[in-house]
Design goal:
The chain contains 1 helix and 9 strands, in the order αβββββββββ. Strands 2-1-4-7 form a 4-stranded mixed β-sheet, with no helix packed on it. A 3-stranded mixed β-sheet has the order 3-9-8, with no helix packed on it. Strands 5-6 form a two-stranded antiparallel sheet. A hairpin with an 8-residue loop joins β8 and β9. The radius of gyration is 21 Å and the shape is globular.
Length: about 130
């Protein structure tokens, strides 16, 4: 009888803890970009305007640093209606957003320099 009571109590405690654990928000994944040479670069990579791969529904934090002397750059994803406002040389900005819940491809760009500064966000299902 005592053993059964202990099992029931442990089960109730476990049920109370599950919502706390599953409801804890996860930190967004950080993607650091630099604007330089009239292109976007992901930190540590040499690829111009790289493909940014996101998981469907993932929370993402994009950080943009403008390294371009004398130029103003921004970062926008028009289809999601999100943007980092225009940044002067050595300024930094960021946005946090949730990737769409379905797979697909979206365009990101620098609005003043879209012909040269644009790339693809590829959203993939988990």
């Amino acid at each position: 009888m005592l053993l059964m009571l202990a099992v029931v109590l442990l089960g109730l405690v476990a049920l109370m803890l599950v919502p706390l654990r599953s409801g804890t928000p996860r930190e967004p994944r950080v993607i650091a970009l630099e604007a330089r040479g009239m292109a976007f670069y992901a930190s540590g990579l040499g690829e111009r305007n790289p493909i940014l791969r996101l998981h469907a529904g993932e929370q993402v934090r994009i950080i943009l640093r403008n390294r371009e002397p004398g130029m103003t750059h921004d970062f926008a994803v028009p289809s999601l209606n999100i943007a980092i406002p225009a940044l002067k040389e050595e300024e930094q900005g960021e946005i946090i957003f949730r990737a769409p819940s379905s797979s697909g491809r979206l365009e990101y760009l620098c609005r003043p320099h879209a012909p040269m500064m644009k790339g693809i966000i590829e959203v993939v299902a988990w």
